[in-house]
Amino acid sequence: MTYQAFYRVYRPQSFREMSGQTHVKRTLQNALEANKTTHAYLFSGPRGTGKTSTAKIFAKALNCEKAPTKEPCNECPTCLSITEGSHPDVIEFDAASNSRVEEMRDIIEKVRFAPANARFKVYIIDEVHMLSTSAFNALLKTLEEPPPHAVFILATTEPHKLPATIISRCQRFDFKRLSSNDILERMKIILEDIDLPFEEQALKVIAQASAGGMRDALSLLDQVVSFSGDKLTLENALLVSGSISQDVFYDIAFALKNKEIAQVLSSLEELIAEGKDPVRLSEDFITFFRDLLLLQTSSDLTELLELVTSEEKFITLAHEFNADTLYGYIDILAKTQQEMRFSHHTKIYLETALLKMAQVQNSSVVNGHVGGSVDPAVNEKVANLEKMVQQLTLQLQNGISAQGNPAIQQREAPRPRAKTTGYNAPVGRIREVLKGATKQDIHQIKSAWAQTLSQLQKSQAALLAEAEPVAASSSAFVVKFKYDIHCRMVAENREFTTLFSQILSQITGTMYELLCIPENDWISLRQSFIKENGLNQKKETTDHEGALVQENIHEDPFIDDAQEIASEDPLIAEAEKMFGKDFVEVVED
């Protein structure tokens, strides 16, 4: 007899021999035992997870001479002929090569005939998603109401391509990828059966490379066995599968921990020169750092390890890394893996990822304090900077203090604050504007006020309808609001204040900062500022004729609200801007 591949020779012949898929096995066995099987089943899942094998086992259990039974006997003529693929009532149909409606009509015409020598006529349609739309439509009615002796088993790796009308007429079973342990145990049984010694780590490499598919694992095992001599070794498995030794990953991880970037990139270059795929390397790196996390978490998780073994050097390496650092490594590699899918320069992406990983600090944050390998002196500097920032923030909120002068600080203590709406006007910033206020700046802003409002949306301009500029310096201006709620809405909308300043700057040629204050707070702040700075004080002097003359010691650094009534009216301000103040006369009715 010619040689057969492992996945054909060791195909499971009973539910007991199947690896994994417990939810599928238990449901089908209970239905068989209770004689409550239905007429149509849909088996979906990744390749090599046992869909076709389960369909054949189920067909044998349905037609076994000892039925109803949970397991086929594999001894009666019916079971043996189904195993050999020669039973006339179990028809395997490959939809990939017979996708036309003509082939489907041939099945539909023959399905009404009774089985030749079995209880049920079973149709196993593999890769059913490859059928054409016409073939699906032809199958639809038969699938919904088949003869009582017919059972359809549809298998597919892409269930999303099936019409919803087909899926709704079937009992659906989703096959999952097999775990590494399930694949490992199956390979051990095969190697013991052929009496070939093996290294368990070599089987782990094969299981990891198979990505959850039993057929892929057995095909790769068959190849490694053919390559090996008297013993299946780790070196042979790595060479045939294209995987990498755990010692190579150990050296790269150790170099990353010590920030030896040249060593890391040199090792990567050697691996790629050997023909390793950067995408596959990124997957292996993720698995390796995941294994280190498992070793770091608990010593009871060694059975879940895929790339590394529970040797002392790996356990030591795992505890030398902080958990946050390993999480960071996995996150960087996962993002890089996503980016690789859309580029042909996968090597560059992987090199960049390793550089990022080398720059990750092996430290953690616990209760707000930086720990790990961070220099204590750096911690002290950071703490001092945080204190300075808090002090500056407090000063900005309460107004800038006067260079540590206690008398001035005491005098400035009772400053007016907005109380009614919860909005705190920037009193300190406004005081700075008042100190540098000029009549030229406030004239310029008031002249452009109406034009600026006209360029805003109506809803935005409405907020400033009962507001007016009252003081301005070369960098900022103060606007008082009649209604506190309007003041708060404008002050808290940073996008609006920025837009207003930009429009104003296009007209005036100067970028001013907008500061908002309620009217009551403005009156109180203005009076307080005049009193503190001794403004509008007068002294008596004698002129050259001996008469007493009163002179202002200081002038107001800002324009009072009542000083320029004409400028308060937007229409008058616009007229003055267009024709000049000398040509505009305001007549009271």
UniProtKB/TrEMBL annotation:
One BP annotation, GO: DNA-templated DNA replication
The entry's keywords: ATP-binding, DNA replication, DNA-directed DNA polymerase, Metal-binding, Nucleotide-binding, Nucleotidyltransferase, Transferase, Zinc
EC number(s) reported in the record: 2.7.7.7
Keyword RNA-binding: no
Annotated stretches, region: Disordered: 403-422
Gene Ontology molecular function, alphabetical: ATP binding; DNA binding; DNA-directed DNA polymerase activity; metal ion binding
Catalytic reaction equation(s): DNA(n) + a 2'-deoxyribonucleoside 5'-triphosphate = DNA(n+1) + diphosphate
Keyword match Magnesium: no
Gene Ontology cellular component list: DNA polymerase III complex
Domain AAA+ ATPase stretches: 37-179
CDD domains xrefs: AAA, HLD_clamp_pol_III_gamma_tau
Any Pfam family hit: DNAX_ATPase_lid
Entry superkingdom: Bacteria
Family named by the database record: Belongs to the DnaX/STICHEL family.
NCBIfam families in the record: dnaX_nterm, PRK05563.1
PANTHER family named among the record's database cross-references: PROTEIN STICHEL-LIKE 2 (PTHR11669:SF0), REPLICATION FACTOR C / DNA POLYMERASE III GAMMA-TAU SUBUNIT (PTHR11669)
The name this protein goes by in its record: DNA-directed DNA polymerase
Lineage: Bacteria, Bacillati, Bacillota, Bacilli, Bacillales
This protein's encoding gene: dnaX
